[in-house]
Each structure stands twice: as structure tokens, then as C-alpha cells.
Amino acid sequence: MQNYKYLKDLRNRIAIVTGASSGLGEQIAYQLAKRGAIVVVCARRMDRLEVVSQRCRELSGRLSTAMELDVARPEQIEQVIEQVENELGPIDVLINDAGFGLMENALDFKMDIAEKMFRVNVLGLMYMTKYAALKMSVRKRGAIVNIASVAGKIATPKSAVYSATKAAVLGYSNALRLELKPLGISVLTVNPGPIKTDFFNIADKSGHYLENVGLFVLDPEETAEKVVKAIGTSRRELNLPYVFQAMYHFYQFCPWVGDYLAGNLFNKK
């Protein structure tokens, strides 16, 4: 039995969630709490985090704590990991959810924002993973969940930079999974489509994207439940909604048709 399978029971297991002040990260924190985990919620907005942490305590009947963290700052990441390990105990689960996007044509995209997006979406995730996995590797157990995006598999117009960051997360996660498996650590990559969250308040300048792709929009609570349910299993990827998995295979096997669909049917930005 792989060591990570003990995490099917999350009672009293310590779980860290980044990007937990809102959206999918917040809902994942609640789902972990419902399963009895000790949830550490991290983000930049401490006022929001305190509310989320309080709700986690109500749901779990256990400890939950909020920690201010900007994943664009590696020194903060290392400090948070050390603080959790020293004050709460061994980290069992890491959920890398922090990230942001912006829908804009590549030629109009400001490169300082592109650099920030890579710093948060990719490098922040890598730093967080490394520092947590180093602790997990000593104990030969743990689970890491990286929230990527279907945009990393099926790119559409105005998503060039965002898709590039998520494709990087996919590549990193695929290699990481193979490296960490012998150490008893599982790596799950989650590739959701559009989720009805505050993410699009920044990402979507038009304000109509979710309305235009309504058929494919995910509910954050239901998505979070599926993510947490996959912890403690050998599942390597979770693609949501499930129809996107079929779309991806079609995109690969019939690239010219895939480009047509991505540039027209799915181009709702």
C-alpha cells in the first residue's frame, strides 16, 4: 500500500491551502474541514482568511489557523512551512491553489504582468511544493494537489500567457509525480474549466465570459468536493467538467478541428 492512501481519512491531518481567501481555495478548505482536517489557510488578505479559518473551525470542530502569505515571495513560503511544522505538526496535504489570470491578446499584454503571473502561478507553486515536499519526504508520506487549468491543455485566444503558466504547472506536476512516488508522496493535478468565482473579476475585462460559456461553468463547492475526494488515491489528474477530457483528446487527434473549435466555439472572451 502506498503511504499516501492513509489520507483517505483526513481527521486530524494537517492540510495547507494557498489562495484560500476566496473561490476554489476557500471551498477546498471547507471540504477539508468537513472531513476533520486541521486546515491552514494562506493568502494575502488576512481579513478574509480569518473568516475562512473561523468557518473551518466550525465545520471540523478542530483547530484551523490563518497565515498571511504572498506566494510571489519565497522567503515567506519557507517561513510559513517552518512555522506550521514547528507549531502545529507534520504537513500531510498541500493544496496549491494561489494564482491569477488576465484575458488579453498576447501582443497587448504587459510583460511586467506576465512576469508576475509566472512568479505567482508557477514559481510560487514550485517553491511551496519544494519546501513542503522536503518535509514530507523525511516521513515518506504526503499528498500534493496542484490546481492547473484546462487552459494548460486547450489554449484559446486571449489566454496565451495564462495558458503558458498552467502548461508549465502541468509539465512540472507530471515529472514531480514520478519523482515523489517512491517517497510515498502523491501528486494530483487538477485541470478545471471556468469556475464561478471572483477569479474572473480580474481576468475578464468584458464581464460576460462566464455568461457566454454558461454550459461549461463549474460550481466551486462541487468542484472542491471532487478535489478533496481524490486525496489519498492514486489518481494522477482530475479534469473538470469531464467533457473537457474528451475535448482534449479530440484536440490532440484532430488538431486542425481543435484549433477551429478553440478559436471559435470556445472563444468567448
Automatic annotation (TrEMBL):
Cited PROSITE patterns: ADH_SHORT (PS00061)
GO CC, alphabetical? membrane
Q: Which domain of life is it from?
A: Bacteria
Q: Which Pfam families match?
A: adh_short
* Keywords (A to Z) from UniProt: Oxidoreductase
Matching InterPro entries = NAD(P)-bd_dom_sf (IPR036291), Sc_DH/Rdtase_CS (IPR020904), SDR_fam (IPR002347)
What are the GO MF terms of this UniProt record? oxidoreductase activity, acting on the CH-OH group of donors, NAD or NADP as acceptor
UniProt family annotation: Belongs to the short-chain dehydrogenases/reductases (SDR) family.
Name the PANTHER family on file.
DEHYDROGENASE/REDUCTASE SDR FAMILY MEMBER 7B, DEHYDROGENASE_REDUCTASE SDR FAMILY MEMBER 7B
Quote the protein name from its UniProt record.
Short chain dehydrogenase
Q: Which organism is it from?
A: Liquorilactobacillus uvarum DSM 19971
